[in-house]
Structures are given as C-alpha cells and as structure tokens.
Write the structure tokens for this entry.
Amino acid sequence: MSQTAERAPLNWPAVLILLTTPLAALILIPWYAIHHDYSVAAWVSFVLFLAWNGLGITAGYHRLWAHRTYDASWPVRFMLMLGGTMAIQNSILFWSSGHRTHHRHVDHVDLDPYSAKRGFWFSHMGWMLRNYPSGNPDFRNAPDLQKDPMVMFQHNYYIPMILVTNLGFPALVGWAVGDFWGVMLLAGLLRLVASHHFTFFINSLAHMFGKQPYTDENTARDNFWLALVTWGEGYHNFHHIFQYDYRNGVKWWQFDPTKWLILGLSKVGLTSNLKRVPEFTIKKAEVSMKFKRAEQELAVYGHDVREDAQMLRERISKEYDAFTQTLNEWAALKEKAIEMKKAEFAQKLHEVDERMKLEYRLVEQRMQAHSMQMETILQNLRQRIARRTA
C-alpha cells in the first residue's frame, strides 16, 4: 500500500513541540509586551540566538555533516553542533541521514521523507507529525557520522542537550542582562518557532516557488526571498544538482551568509577542503537548461528555427570537447608535477594552467553568446507568431 494512503500513527513528541510552541508564542509574547515590554538586550539576544540556530543547521547539519562539503576544526564543529541542537530538529545523525535519503529519492511520494509531491503541508511539517515509513531512521547511509565521536555524543545525549541549550542558555543570558522573562520569550520561544519554520520553508516553498536555472529534473527551485531568511539555503535548485558544493548562492551577488562564514573561517585555518563545482560545469548546466526550454518552446511555436538551434548546439559541443581536452591535459601535468617535482615540469604546468584559464574565459564568453542568440531567435519567433495570429 502506498504511504499516501496510510494513516500513520502520531509522533507525539513532534506534535507537542511543533504545535504548542507557536500557540504559546502567539499568546505569551504579545501579553508580555503589553504588560512589561522587552529590553534591547532581549531583542539582541533573539537575533544572535536565531543566527546561531540557523547557521548551526545550514553550515553544520546541512553543509558540513549531511553533505561533507568542507572540513571544520573541533571548535567550529562544537559551536555548530550546539547551535543545531538548540534548533530542536533532531540529532545530527538523524537529520543528516534523512536528508541524504531526501536527495537520493527526491520527490518520490513513498521514499522521499518530505516529498513536495505530497503537498505543502506534508513537506513543510506534516511529515514530522506522524511516523510515516519514509521517515523511519536508516543510518546505513551515514557510516561516516556513526564514527564521529561528537556526532554520536550529541545523538546519545540529545534530550538533556536540548534542555540545556533551549532553557539553560537563554536563562543564563536573561539573568546576566536583567531581563529574564524577556530573553526567555524572545531568545527562547520566539527564536525556536522562527528557526523551525524558516528551515521548513526549504522543504516546502523552495520546492514550489522560484526559478530552475540549472535543472528541471526535480521540483527544487532557486528563491531569493527564501535565501534571506534561511542564511542562503534558498538557492535550492543549484543545491539539488550540485549538492557537494559548499556554496548554495554560487553567484557573487547572491545572498548566502553560510557560504561567507565557511569561506571566512577558511582564511584563518578553521575550515578547509572547501568543495566547489567547476565553473564550467555550472555554466554548462545553465546553458543546457536554456536549450531545453528553447526546445520546449520550439515544440509550441514551430520548427522553422530548429536548424539554427542545432547549429548552436553543435558549436557548444565542439567547444566543450576542446575545453575538456585542455582540462585533462592540465590535470595530468599537475599529477606528474606532484610526483616528479621537477622545476622544468612545474614551468610546463604553469604554462598550461594559464592557457586553460584563457581558454575557459573564451569558451564561457562564447557559451553566453550562444545562449543570448538562442533567446533572440525565440523572441523573434514569438513576435512573428503574434503578428500572424493578430
């Protein structure tokens, strides 16, 4: 029987946390504001705790542990672990294992733990409120995490750790700044509710609204507005095709503070081995999607420009083959240089490296020109069709 037809049993811990905390926030936070008001320190603590929570999930749970997109020093891992624990989204092991399953079976209604194909409510939080089979933990896809002492310590002592981080930390700050209940309500309760739903938006809205510049093989979308409240996670279409890149907002102008944090820490030696997808591979995915959309529009508007489209496609294919050959030559020389460590070989490597960079820039420019040319052809075709049907 399909899971969509099952009436799975309620997950009572999730029901209590996810349904009572928003209700409590709606009642208690306005009531306290009317009778006592909040101090500046309480609001500052809310912002700082929310950032710690958010980055604990994005830089920690997601990009560090679930996807292994970079390595981090013990202090960084410890701080991200605490921030992620405070977010109450289950342990690193449970979260990361489930997320790997999501990527493996994205959009499958029975195998994806939070499939967007099952609707907004299910992908946003409904999948957590019941014990669906797709959400059952299967840690066989996370042997690396099971060997990590910090991950397993958090997993084994998760309940006391969420009590310390969610009650102890705000209480300590509230006592220190002289606004105990203000900090408890803002940095404790409101922060938790906001952190929950900002993260949940990636599972729901980021699979429903936005653009698909890199792939349409799944429902993931790039959404700038979601990136603003999720520390850069809103560029979800890029992430689903290039999940092992430490960046989500790959363009220099895209808002991705998680990327900036990881990169900044690498400058002082606290993170390392930052994984990047080659720029050419990213550009190739972009141009391929433009051609795919062009083919779809050709099927609608007619076939009289198909020959032009094929000519452009052949040009890009030849340029890609030439660049691949140069790239392979560069990689082979680099490997030999490491092995032989000869001065004349290092010089040869440098020459090929520079040639590769130049050729890459030229190929990228030509690919962009082809993309623009295709859009111009389609625009002219649409205008002709519009005039014909007017």
Remarks:
- Residues 343-389 form the longest helix (47 residues).
- Confidence is low (pLDDT under 50) at residues 1-5.
